[in-house]
Design a protein that fits this description.
The chain is of the alpha/beta class and 539 residues long. The chain folds into 3 domains: 186 residues, Up-down Bundle (Substrate Binding Domain Of Dnak, Chain:A, Domain 2); 126 residues, Rossmann fold; 181 residues, Rossmann fold. The chain is built from 18 helices and 16 strands. It is globular and about 65 Å long. The termini are far apart.
Length: 539
């Protein structure tokens, strides 16, 4: 059968090798082709910056374009075509006569992505790591940008990284860039952390109910706190309650957002359950970023998108951020007639969030003493993106089987597999501590570094283990950040990325000890035996 497309950027790619007829995510072959065309145009724009200074419009266009190509963001061909046109216009700004040149030099040509997909598998693997890492980082840069925060080094690296994807062709040239993606992503996550905390305050612990109160309401999903703030402002005193979904859950921890009394709670479980959970929901759902699944006909008229998120025939809220259509739909639908109780995947009726690095580091002395006293034996960072592939129950089982004197740090949407569990407390701290969104991996890194400093050892010597799940490209850039920092022995699942060639995978195994998850029992045994020597307390 002739291939209609090629895409292997997400964890659920067909046959763990690549989608060739249609995307498992729901995107069509035409959409995949347009995303490739957009990526090629972005590389052409980056090439144009080699001899021409990038402008603010250059950076914004690249960040928006990369964000558009992340899995489960845009399924709208017309929106992608507009982004291609915008990219071409941005390049024309830098090299105005290039398109009509009678003797083209080829230096600013758009890149044919088929060259990448058909390249030597090791080169393809390294370039894919760079490209997918850049896509994930673009999401974080975009959210920071929405709050008025930018970083010149981050912006410049988008151009540098894309240039390398379209030009460099040896492993020796590409491998340093792979690790540099991780380095710059750390700066980007720090930038977004600063943007969020300076805009909305330092997160503090919050217990978030899963009950939806009677009356009109709106569900907000995605990652963009600015969009949530604008919606909260526009719904004040209108008798409409607001509920978070997915990666918007950590919003309940920010003081400035907590002040809105109509920010009530959280609706729904894992993002991939949305087609079932939204089916009979008497309320609209606003998507601010991924992860959007193609809406079923039963609720498509209740789906609203904004920013780069788009799906054909759904209402898109433009740059004016007038959420009137969403508000009107909420009032029309009316919500539930009575308070309605929902539960998490494990039957819990509430979840917690707000254990960011500010909160944990404020009690760092108590944590250190608890470790030295033997009250805390181990820390597990069980984090990452969720997905629908079988085997992800591993993470629930793993958390349930962790020692009762261990702490589970978590972040990103993978936590919905277990965040409604009540595993008790240690020293007044809950055993499961949600640090926030996927970008809050920055906070987890700060906690790890602080603990290492307190014990006078390296992060790899701490009683701290990384057990990660991945789905899309933000997980890729976070993984590259951990590798940049030299963190070893990461467990990754539920499957290893299809874009890792055997040679590149072997390099990661030999140099960083990356290993696929096996069983909770086997992995727990191995991790507990391998960590803990620097603290004076051995498991």
């Amino acid at each position: 059968m002739e291939n209609k497309m090629f895409c292997f950027q997400c964890e659920q790619t067909a046959g763990c090798t690549g989608c060739t007829q249609a995307g498992v995510c729901g995107k069509s072959a035409d959409t995949a082709r347009l995303q490739d065309e957009l990526t090629g145009a972005l590389i052409g724009l980056a090439r144009a910056t080699e001899s021409n200074p990038a402008t603010q419009n250059t950076y914004q266009t690249i960040i928006e374009g990369l964000f558009t190509t992340i899995t489960n963001v845009s399924f709208d061909d017309a929106a992608i075509i507009r982004q291609i046109e915008k990219t071409n216009a941005a390049k024309a700004e830098l090299v105005p006569g290039c398109g009509s040149c009678g003797a083209p030099c080829g230096k600013t040509e758009d890149y044919d992505m088929q060259q990448l997909w058909n390249d030597n598998e090791d080169i393809r693997s390294l370039k894919s790591l760079i490209l997918f890492g850049l896509r994930g980082m673009a999401a974080y840069a975009y959210h920071a940008q929405m709050l008025g925060y930018q970083d010149d080094e981050v912006n410049d690296f988008f151009c540098e990284g894309l240039f390398k994807v379209g030009y460099e062709n040896t492993m020796e040239e590409l491998l340093p860039t792979v690790l540099k993606v991780g380095e710059i992503n750390l700066k980007c996550m720090a930038l977004l952390d600063k943007a969020n905390t300076e805009s909305y305050g330092t997160p503090t612990p919050a217990v978030v109910p899963l009950t939806v109160e009677k009356g009109p309401f709106i569900v907000v999903t995605g990652h963009d706190l600015k969009d949530l703030e604008l919606l909260l402002e526009q719904t004040k005193d209108k008798g409409i309650n607001i509920y978070t979904h997915g990666e918007m859950l950590p919003a309940h921890a920010y003081p400035k957002l907590k002040k809105y009394p109509h920010l009530k709670g959280n609706f729904g479980t894992a993002w991939q359950n949305q087609q079932k959970e939204f089916a009979n929901l008497p309320a609209p759902v606003l998507f601010t970023t991924n992860c959007l699944m193609p809406p079923k006909a039963s609720y498509a008229d209740r789906v609203f998108t904004t920013e780069v998120v788009a799906f054909p025939d759904t209402v898109h809220i433009g740059e004016d951020k007038d959420f009137t259509p969403v508000i009107e739909k909420a009032l029309e639908l009316g919500g539930f007639a009575e308070d309605t109780e929902f539960t998490g995947i494990n039957g819990g009726n509430k979840v917690q969030t707000g254990f960011g690095h500010g909160t944990i580091l404020s009690v760092a002395d108590k944590v250190v003493e608890a470790v030295k006293a033997g009250d805390i034996s181990h820390f597990f960072l069980v984090a990452g993106c969720d997905g629908a592939r079988p085997g992800r129950n591993y993470y629930t089982d793993f958390v349930k089987q962790t020692p009762k004197d261990s702490i589970i740090l978590t972040l990103a949407c993978g936590k919905y597999r277990f965040n409604d569990l009540d595993l008790g407390e240690i020293g007044g701290l809950p055993r499961i501590m949600d640090m926030g969104q996927c970008n809050d991996a920055y906070g987890a890194i700060q906690v790890a570094v602080a603990l290492a400093d307190a014990f006078g050892c390296g992060v790899n010597d701490l009683p701290l283990s990384f057990v990660l799940s991945w789905y899309e490209q933000k997980a890729v850039c976070i993984l590259l950040t951990l590798l940049h920092l030299g963190i070893k022995n990461i467990r990754l699942g539920p499957s290893l990325p299809a874009f890792l060639s055997p040679n590149i995978l072997n390099y990661l195994v030999e140099n960083y000890g990356i290993a696929p998850i096996t069983t909770p029992e086997e992995d727990l045994k191995a991790l507990l035996e391998s960590r803990g020597c620097c603290t004076g307390y051995k498991n």
